[in-house]
Design a protein that fits this description.
The complex is a heterodimer of chains A (about 400) and B (about 110). Chain A has helices at about 10-15, 15-25, 40-50, 80-90, 100-115, 125-140, 150-160, 175-195, 200-210, 220-250, 250-260, 265-275, 305-310, 345-360, and strands at about 30, 35-40, 55, 120-125, 280-285, 290, 295, 300-305, 365, 385-390. Chain A is of the alpha+beta class. Chain A has a five-stranded mixed sheet, with helices on both faces. In chain A, strands 4-10-9 form a three-stranded antiparallel sheet. In chain A, a hairpin with a 4-residue loop joins strand 1 and strand 2. In chain A, helix 6 packs across helix 7 (about 150-160) and helix 8 (about 175-195) crosses helix 10. The longest helix of chain A has about 30 residues, at about 220-250. The N and C termini of chain A lie far apart (about 45 Å). Chain B is of the alpha+beta class and about 110 residues long. Chain B contains two helices and five strands. Chains A and B meet through helix 3 and helix 4 of A and helix 1 of B.
């Protein structure tokens, strides 16, 4: 009897055979373990993402939601509230407004990856998490250097911990909740600093941003800041692990982008399709929907398995092949529709610069272990450790 | 469902049937039509799905929202009175026969 339990270590490690079965045999599947429906075909996921009136995010968008979060962040609210919040902060994330970050990001990449000079074996997580947190601190304007209120390592440790779930119970354990609460307190201190003395950074901007006299309230500023930190560390950090995993696994692809770094953006897009770290997000139905002979009821939760839609042979020929010449437009690696990732432009920019600099120091590398420890998470997927040898 | 024709800058013309609720950006991408990038995934945040609505259709589409008009300031090709973002136009039966022209560049 087939089962699909997004809380199981087997799905953490390799969800793709499950997805294939679901797409072919049960494209609208009720998972008793998850207590939600699971949609796995590209077309069905796109249709759901387009229809936010039916597939609501207001009850939370993470597979395992954090306490008190739903309804107050961008990802967990519906239009028109969502559009109002997004309008206030979106501007800062547009490609043209990120140009000023290019040089600081490159300096961070050179410093972080420069540490690998002469090193024969290393855990990529160590460098990718350092890079991610530094970029995030620079982009958001979190206090650094003399201004710092805590050391960078503490921010990093809590950010990494708060997105995880307990490996056994699959719920948020006390240590994850504590890390999340720590991050909220930290964010709240930073917001107060920036409100008192605004600078030209993201947090100052959206704490004070106004459109037609409308502003975010304190809780919205706080939870949105916390979410940006979480999304930055988890999504970008996780994605960098997956990208390194792919390039370490597929030597031809790595050699191609090392020889011609101009092709890095194509390799990044294909990684976003092939095994994006954002595997599954959640919606809640506002009305009954009948699809593939199943009726999902108003109030039911639905898992949108982006990672499966990206491997749907109905959309992408030879979907299980990592092909950096594919140029997979329309992939679901950043989600889609009104809730598509806010950070697409900064993620693409930062990851491209990171690997450009990484490859200058370490052009040849491969995985040390065949079997990897995968993060226990029903939403994201990335290895906890990625030992690489030169 | 609506049958919509996309005319690429090269003159290449392709008609596709688009399911209700799907937007024109997705219609081009899912059907392998060039000329649209859709970098932001359809959240009206990148201006890389710029298109020109055929003049015969200009007054028949629902008006652009303020955020779409705002984002149209950022398009790469010439902005014209019939410029729209393809991700902000959703297919309905009322769009049967719509003709969309695609610009030569999006970035």
């Amino acid at each position: 009897m087939f089962s699909f339990d997004p809380y199981s270590p087997a799905v953490d490690a390799d969800p793709f055979p499950y997805y294939k079965h679901l797409r072919d045999e049960a494209p609208c599947f009720w998972s008793p373990e998850a207590q939600m429906w699971v949609l796995t075909r590209y077309n069905d996921i796109v249709t759901a993402l387009n229809d936010w009136e039916t597939y609501s995010s207001a009850s939370g968008n993470l597979m395992t939601e954090l306490p008190g979060r739903a309804g107050a962040t961008l990802g967990s609210s519906d239009p028109p509230k969502h559009d109002r919040m997004r309008a206030l902060i979106q501007h800062a994330f547009m490609k043209r407004n990120l140009l000023a970050l290019e040089e600081p990001i490159r300096a961070i990449a050179q410093q972080v990856f420069g540490q690998l000079k002469g090193v024969k074996q290393f855990d990529f997580k160590e460098v990718s998490s350092q890079f991610t947190v530094k970029v995030l601190m620079a982009a958001l304007g979190l206090p650094m250097g003399d201004e710092a209120i805590v050391d960078e390592q503490t921010v990093r440790d809590n950010a990494v911990l708060m997105v995880q779930s307990d490996a056994r119970t699959r719920a948020k354990g006390p240590e994850h909740i504590a890390a999340y609460n720590w991050m909220q307190e930290y964010a709240s201190k930073v917001i107060e600093m920036r409100k008192a003395a605004p600078r030209n950074d993201l947090i100052s901007n959206f704490a004070l941003a106004e459109i037609d006299g409308d502003r975010l309230d304190d809780r919205e500023v706080l939870l949105t800041t916390t979410t940006l930190i979480m999304a930055g560390v988890e999504s970008m950090g996780g994605f960098m692990m997956m990208f390194a995993y792919n390039l370490a696994t597929f030597a031809d692809a790595r050699k191609t982008v090392v020889a011609n770094p101009e092709l890095l953006p194509d390799a990044i897009e294909e990684s976003l399709r092939f095994n994006t770290s954002a595997q599954r997000f959640r919606r809640r139905l506002m009305k009954d929907v009948t699809i593939h002979g199943q009726t999902m009821k108003a109030g039911d939760f639905v898992c949108l398995a982006y990672g499966s839609g990206n491997r749907d042979e109905r959309q992408y020929p030879n979907p299980d092949v990592y092909d950096i010449t594919r140029k997979p437009r329309g992939h679901l690696g950043f989600g889609g529709g009104v809730h598509a990732c806010l950070g697409t432009a900064i993620a693409r920019l930062a990851v491209k610069i990171a690997f450009d600099e990484f490859h200058k120091v370490v052009p040849e590398y491969h995985r040390v272990a065949d079997q990897l420890p995968w993060m226990p998470s029903s939403t994201f997927r990335s290895p906890l450790v990625l030992e690489l040898a030169v | 469902m609506a049958n919509i024709t996309f005319v690429e800058a090269s003159g290449q013309s392709t008609s596709v049937n688009l399911a209700d609720g799907w937007n024109l950006m997705q219609g081009t991408i899912a059907n392998g039509i060039d000329g649209i990038l859709g970098e932001c995934g359809g959240s009206c945040a990148c201006a890389t799905c710029h298109c020109y609505v055929d003049e015969s259709w200009q007054d028949k589409l629902p008006a652009a929202s303020e955020s779409e008009l705002d984002m149209l300031d950022n398009v790469a090709a010439e902005r014209r009175p019939n410029s729209r973002l393809a991700c902000q136009i959703k297919a309905t039966a009322g769009l049967e026969g719509l003709i969309i022209h695609l610009p030569a560049t999006q970035e």
